[in-house]
Task: inverse folding
């Protein structure tokens, strides 16, 4: 099976990114500007121009409302109706980044669709944005991609089946480590003095070395 | 004098190590690039896409009542070149009994047209705008081929180039699910 070489992915992403990721709203603004430019070219009274302008905005807005499914046509079939309020502006961008960061890019090595520059990741991220703009929740979006790719597409495995081990094992290993360290510390604290050390101290005390006797005397004298 | 072994610590350590080894060994022998499709056994995602040659838009639903082979490919994919004669030959041999559809994956129409002109087009090829259909089918690399039965259910998915024997096997499965 072939995956597109990174260089190709990058060059295509750079070349086509602006076209493939252009938001619908941006395109709509462009259309409105063009329509107004055309109106300016016509010789009309102010009132007539304002009425016609309003009509253009209304028609284009209807067009925008009629194409919310353009990005992800089968979302409603797969995950049902949106469960949250639609997002817009900065909230939409932030949430898109957050949700995309948890979805794996299927043509990359361990990258999320938020981090990958591949065309596939750009398209998937665009779908995430479309779905959030329509009010779909993070869970619904993850379920949508899971339908096609399975749990492989989720960078954060679900707490079910064998995946439970992935969540539990690190915690169990950490707890086991804490228990071992606590056990070792307790042992060190209750450990009797080493016999070799005690024997040497006794031997020193019985020694008739004049040097040692002098040191002991000085220590005794220094005691308060 | 050796210290007595703390059996509880040993047992806990062994249990954790065994569980970890168990999880890791599950991945041994598996191709990390391979994605098992959860769509096998389920109805194929619908799509209606226009053809490269500018013909009317269509999708697998148009061919209900006979098996459909959906092949994702591109001209920049060398293995796709290798399997192209296999697919075109099979499409000619099977005729009306099985419908083949090529779905272009991240490629330019001009390159596709030139490729088909040079190497022959045995079946319609459609353009997947913004990769919507590839994402709906869970494509993770190409070539990837899906085999739909007469009811539109996916009966098999193949990753990589198809040999004539493999193609024959999958088509038989799609014809007799």
Result:
């Amino acid at each position: 099976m072939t995956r597109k070489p990174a260089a190709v992915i990058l060059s295509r992403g750079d070349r086509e990114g602006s076209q493939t990721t252009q938001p619908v709203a941006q395109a709509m603004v462009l259309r409105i500007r063009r329509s107004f430019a055309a109106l300016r070219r016509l010789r009309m009274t102010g009132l007539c121009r304002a009425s016609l302008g309003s009509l253009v905005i209304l028609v284009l807005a209807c067009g925008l409302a009629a194409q919310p499914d353009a990005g992800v046509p089968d979302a409603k079939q797969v995950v049902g109706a949106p469960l949250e309020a639609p997002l817009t502006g900065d909230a939409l961008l932030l949430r898109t980044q957050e949700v995309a960061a948890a979805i794996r890019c299927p043509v990359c090595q361990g990258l999320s669709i938020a981090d990958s520059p591949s065309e596939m990741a750009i398209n998937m991220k665009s779908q995430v944005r479309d779905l959030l703009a329509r009010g779909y929740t993070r869970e619904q979006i993850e379920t949508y991609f899971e339908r096609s790719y399975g749990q492989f597409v989720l960078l954060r495995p679900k707490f079910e089946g064998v995946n439970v081990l992935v969540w539990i094992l690190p915690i169990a290993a950490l707890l086991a480590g804490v228990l071992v360290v606590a056990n070792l510390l307790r042992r060190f604290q209750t450990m009797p003095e080493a016999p070799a050390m005690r024997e040497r101290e006794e031997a020193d005390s019985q020694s008739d070395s004049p040097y040692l006797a002098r040191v002991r005397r000085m220590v005794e004298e220094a005691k308060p | 004098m050796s210290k007595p072994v703390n059996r509880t610590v040993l047992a806990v350590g062994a249990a954790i190590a065994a569980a970890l080894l168990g999880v890791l060994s599950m991945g041994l022998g598996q191709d990390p690039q391979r994605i098992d499709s959860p769509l096998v056994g389920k109805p194929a995602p619908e799509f209606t896409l226009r053809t490269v040659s500018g013909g009317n838009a269509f999708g697998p639903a148009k061919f209900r009542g006979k098996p459909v082979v959906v092949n994702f490919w591109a001209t920049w994919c060398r293995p796709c070149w290798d399997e192209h004669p296999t697919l075109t030959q099979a499409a000619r041999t099977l005729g009306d009994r099985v419908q083949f559809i090529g779905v272009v994956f991240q490629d330019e129409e001009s390159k596709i047209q030139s490729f088909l002109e040079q190497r022959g087009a045995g079946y319609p090829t459609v353009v997947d705008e913004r990769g919507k259909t590839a994402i709906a089918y869970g494509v993770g690399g190409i070539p990837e081929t899906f085999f739909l039965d007469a009811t539109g259910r996916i009966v098999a998915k193949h990753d990589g180039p198809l040999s004539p024997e493999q193609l024959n096997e999958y088509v038989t499965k799609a014809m007799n699910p």
Notes: Confidence is low (pLDDT under 50) at residues 5-30, 59-69 of chain A. The radius of gyration of chain A is 36 Å. The CA atoms of residues 205 and 216 of chain A lie 9 Å apart.
